[in-house]
Every structure is written in C-alpha cells, then in structure tokens.
Amino acid sequence: MTILGRLSRSPARISVVKKLGLSRQKGLRRSHLIFAAAIALSAALATVAAPARASYKPHRRHASHRHRQIRTGTVAYHALLLEDADTGRILYDYNGGIDWPPASMAKMMLLMVAEDQIKAGRVHLSSPAVISANAAFTGGSRLGLRAGEVVPLGELMKAALIRSANDAAVAVAEEVCGSTERCVEMMNARAQSLGMTHTVYGTVEGLPPTPLHDADVTNAYDLAKLARALIHSTDLLQWSSMATASFDDGAATLHNTNHLIGHFEGADGIKTGFTLKAGFNLTATAQRGNMRLVAVVLGAPSNAQRFVQAARLLEYGFDNFEKVEVVRQGQLLPMQVRVGTNEVMQPVAQRTVSAVVPKKDAANLKMDLAVPASLYGPLVAEQTVGEVIVRDGSEVVATFNAVSPYPVGQQPFPSGQQLPAVAEAPSAPVPEAANERGATIRVTSPAGQAAAAMGQPVAAALPATSAGQPAAALPPAAAAAPVNAPVASINAAAAPATQNLTPVR
Asked: DSSP letters of 73-139?
C-alpha cells in the first residue's frame, strides 16, 4: 500500500471528508431554501403589484345612441319594421322612428325622381347619358365607368339599383337633373311630397363625404313609405327582382346585392345600404298570394345578418297575418236611407276594400256606418252619403265612402219654397247589433256628419207618405255581391224605426 493510500484511509482523513460532506449538504439545502423563498417572494410581489390585471375583463364601448338596440339571439339591430305594402298598416315595429343614415338606400329616392322625369317625358330609358369625370371618379361600390362613355339611362338606373353602383347613380343624377346638386334638391322635394317628414338627402348615392359622417338621414317609417310608392307607381321591381342581369348588352354582369332574391320565397326587392356609421341596412319586399309586405332593417352588424332578420320579419308576417276582402265596389251596404218623402235608397261601397289583419281576428272585423237615416234630395249617382269605418278591435284598418248607387229624388223643391220645418229630436244612443261571427254594424243618428259633408239639411224625423204608410222596403239584398268569408255574413243590423232593413249575405 502506498503512502497516499495509507493517508486516504487514515482516521484523520476520514474525519475531514465527513465534515466536508456534511458542510456541502448543508450548503445545498440552504441554497434550495433561499431559491424557494425567492420564488415565493416574487409570486407574492407579482400578486400585490397587479391585482387589477388578474381580474380585468375587456369592456366594449359602443357609440352612444338615443335608443336601445334590439337583440335577436346575440345580434343587435337598431331598427326593425314590417308593414303591409298596400295600406301601410304596421305589423311589427321596433325603433321605427329613430333617425338613421340610409346609406345606399338613398338611391331609392334617386330612382323615384328619375321615374318621375321619365313619366313627364323629359327623359327616356333609352336616353344616351355621357359619363362625366365626376361620375367616373366616384368612390365606393362602382362599375368602373370611364369618362366620355355613352350609356343608356335605363342601363345606368338598373346598375344603380341592382349593383348599387355609385358611379352609375351619379351619372343618372346628371342626366336626369343636370347636376347632382339639383338632383338632391329634387329628391328632398319628392320626399316632402310623400310625407317623409324625417328624411333629408345630402347625396344622390348615399356615399358619406368622409367616413363616419353620413350626409343623409331618414327613418324606417319613411323608408317603408318610399318603398310602397316605388312598388305602386314604378316598374323598378322588374329589375330589383333579378339575381343577376346583363349591363349594356353584355359589357358587364350585375350581381344583386340583395341576397334575399332567389333565396326567399316571393322576394323581389328592393335595396341594400352600407356605411361604417349606418352598418348594414336593407329595405325588402316580398309577395305571396294576394299579400305584399315591406320589411326594413337598419344597423345590422353584418351583411348576412341583415338578410337573416329581414327574412324572419317577412316570414312572421306571412305566417301570422292574412289579407281579407271587406267589401267590393258597388256592394250594397246593410242599411237604408230615406231621400225626400217617398224614396228609399240603399247605399253602396264606393270602392273595393281589403285589410291585412291577424289570422285569429279575420272573423271579428267590425264595421261602423256613419250614414244618416234620411236626406233631402236630389242625389246624383255616386254621391257620397256617409263613411264606413272598418275596425280590428280598437284599431281602424280601413275606411271607405258610402255612395248613392243611382240618381235619387231628382225633383227638387220648387224655387222659393221653404223646406218643411223639422223639430229637433234629442239624440238617441247609436243602435248596434252583432251577429254570431262578431261583425258589428252601427248606424248614426240622422243628424250625422255625412249629411253635413254633403251640404244637405237632415231631417230628424221622417214624415209619412201620402198613404200614411212607411216607404216601401227595398228588394231582398240577395242580389248584392257577396262579402268574402272572413267578414260575411252580416245578418242583423239595428236602424231607426222608419227603416226596413234587409240582411246582407
């Protein structure tokens, strides 16, 4: 064994090694403890220094509005409206009166003005429109028209409606009105003539002069009113009902921005709109059977959601409402009017009247006849003798005039002869009766407002005929045109004692 080996095994060496080992282990344990304490201290400091960050949740700030948004599921809309296209009866309304930018739906009024000028003969669909530099360089959605091009006016109108092309819209305004400034004046004048009291146009195409600063303002009520005017007085639906259309003999293909076309049953118009401030807007219309509806969606959060909500509104209308014929033009009304002293006349409806009502209420419509029981003659054919009000509960859904079906009492009193004096009778309660289906007829007292409207004096009591008998009753009213099932039949009605009333089926 070497000296080195002997030293390594010596008791002194062993004792030194053991001491060094124990010291090293203690040092390691101390280091571990210090390291763990440092980590714990760092975590504590981090927790103390940032408690807010640990519990922070982002807060989304929206631009302030003077109205609440409606949410369908998790999607917010600023205004929703559903109307009957014929009468304007509101079937669903949320925030319909709030002011909102129409965006490209301003083109609806531009095209209304263009249609007016075409009807007046000042321009024609075939009129050649020269594209100006102003039109060619219009921004936003556009066709890419070039300055100096010549395009028929009708093609430009079609592109403005279907493709929502701003350059085409400016070209239409310049061709029809001479300038965009003059066209804006005509658009505002036309809006006033339609009763669009909350609408002001500043552009012809709805493009904001600067982002978030739209120059046009309207509301859902006014947009629906404009839509109904376009539906009934123009042929624009022939274009807005096209999913795609050729432009200028195939120079381009127009794809409709209204995605309801071809995807929602009966949809055939009208116009979309979008700006950063307005969001996604839509004025839509659809017809199924004899009923046409108009839906307006303002401020939808996405392109897809405006079509989803418009489809829901229209579907709701078709599922829950129906259009019923209340009365037909020339149909006998269930009451009689004494004319002079010896003639009796049964008024007729001046026009055909229909109403859109909830399906559950179709059999419960009520008619109030504000028609006097007696009148001095003579009456000419189709002379108004009173008014008929049709109600769904407390809501008036239609009104129409009651008129004389033929000349009555054509022999007036001799010249200079005074009308017989008639004692005033106290007004009696308005008689009323209801049949088994709930149809109600009310007849006013003789001193009714209809007679005043005719400028004729009204007798409160009827004198007897020369034979001392009441006037002859009319033939049975079975010859009258039948009323449609939801409102027929009116089998009973109360009237003054001097009248012989026949039922109307």
From this structure: TTEEESEEEEEETTT--EEEEESTTS-B--GGGGHHHHHHHHHHHHHTTSS-TT-EEEPPHHHHT--
The two structure tokens encoding residue 316: 């709701």
SS3 376: coil
Query: SS3 sequence, 330-357?
Result: CCECCCCEEECCCEEECCEECCCEEEEE
Listed in sequence order, the residues at least 6 apart from 430 whose beta carbon sits closer than 8 Å to its beta carbon are: 442, 443, 444, 445
Mark residue 414 as left, alpha or beta (left: phi above 0; alpha: psi -120 to 50; beta: remaining).
Answer: beta
The region, left, alpha or beta by phi > 0 then psi within -120 to 50, assigned to residue 5 is alpha
* Burial of 7 per CB tally in 10 Å (0-12, 13-18, 19+): exposed
Percent of the chain past pLDDT 70, that is, above it, reads 66
Q: What is the pTM assigned to this prediction?
A: 0.69
What's the CA gap between 379 and 456, in Å, rounded? Answer: 10
Report pLDDT for 268.
97
Name the 3-class secondary structure at 169. Answer: helix
What is the Cα–Cα distance from 331 to 175, expressed in whole angstroms?
Answer: 48
Q: Kindly state the tokens that stand for 23.
A: 């010291």
Tell me: cis bond preceding 489? Omega within 30 of 0 counts: yes
Separation of alpha carbons 219 and 191, rounded Å? 12
d(CA 146, CA 155): 15
pLDDT value at residue 212: 83
Which is higher by pLDDT, 271 or 497?
271
pLDDT band at 29 (very low <50, low <70, confident <90, very high): low
DSSP code for 202: S
DSSP structure class, residue 210 = B
